[in-house]
Amino acid sequence: MRKPKFFFAAVALAVCIAVAGGGALPAEAATKQYYVGGMTAGFMLSAGGAEVIGLSEVAAEDGIHRPAEDAGIRIGDMIVAVDGIRVKTIKELNAAFERSGGRETQVTLRRGGETAEVRLTPVKDKKSEKYKIGVLIRDTLAGIGTVTYVAKDDLRFGALGHAVADENRNELAISDQKVYLCSVIGVSKGTRGKAGELKGLFMNDTVLAKAEKVCSVGLYGKFEKGFDFSHSELVEAAPVSEATIGKAVIYSTVDGVCPQKYEISVVKVDGDNRENKNFVIKVTDERLLDETGGIVQGMSGSPIVQNGKLIGAVTHVFLNDPTRGYGIAIEHMLEN
């Protein structure tokens, strides 16, 4: 029996960097074959520092203290250095406060794209006997997205189709190289003005792949050799110049672990769009509309296949109409 690693909701994913104009596949991609993805995958990324997600009290021998709150630290701040020494993890942050020995300490924060410095004095907690400042911290971000393709010859994959963070998280790195299969156990349906989302479980005994890179157009790495592709469709890729207005399909997992094919319509093609929005698509499949309301968070990366060829991946949903969304041309993903 598979054991769940933990439960989470799909994180919102936003694009932040432009891509080049469309027209042709990278040279080596033109001769390759690709397994169509659609499976939901979970990954862990570094938060780019120690992110403050809560403020708390420190119970010392002489009473209750709130060093962080009194110094002006807020929820959402990123602690990036202590006494000039860079910190990226909870472990590094705790070690820095232990080094202080209870002396006044300079803490460097990143807030809304700006950097600030505050001074505070860590307090020894009477229970743990560790120096603390009264913050709750996270140093990793968990997310789910959809695998777009896996190359048949070398098992290299691409997923998501867009960046995994906004402009305020430009230091994200891979925290855990393992990419896990996810089982979708629930869906919050999309409605006008509110994006829906997939809810899933990391299946920690099923490692799909090894992650190697995150960038403006997705997550990349290499699949495990033992993965069963016997039920996966094998296709060639096609440049955006071959895409047409009209019928197409996407492959997504909105229940369990098995991708399903759903009908869509390509309503606009723009090979020169510089925001990873080369297609406008509309979900026409009544099954998907009934289950999700259209496109929801976690479906990013769902492969778009037209005329038997992989042309792109789903990236965004229209907030005012969840049946519609954007897609990126596959050549822009393959360039990375």
Explain what this protein looks like in three dimensions.
With 336 residues, this protein is mainly beta. The chain folds into two domains: 238 residues, Thrombin, subunit H, CATH 2.40.10.120; 77 residues, PDZ domain (Pdz3 Domain, Roll). The protein contains four helices and 23 strands. It has a 19-stranded mixed sheet that branches. Strands 4-5 form a two-stranded antiparallel sheet. A hairpin with a 2-residue loop joins strand 22 and strand 23. The chain is elongated, with a radius of gyration of 22 Å. The chain starts with a strand and ends with a helix. The N terminus is likely disordered.
Structural class: mainly beta
Task: Return Rg in Å.
Answer: 22 Å
Low-confidence sequence ranges: 1-21
Mean pLDDT: 87
Helix content: under 10%
Identify the notable features of this structure and list them briefly.
50% strand; elongated; 336 residues; Thrombin, subunit H; 19-stranded mixed sheet; two-stranded antiparallel ribbon; Pdz3 Domain; 4 helices; mainly beta; disordered N terminus
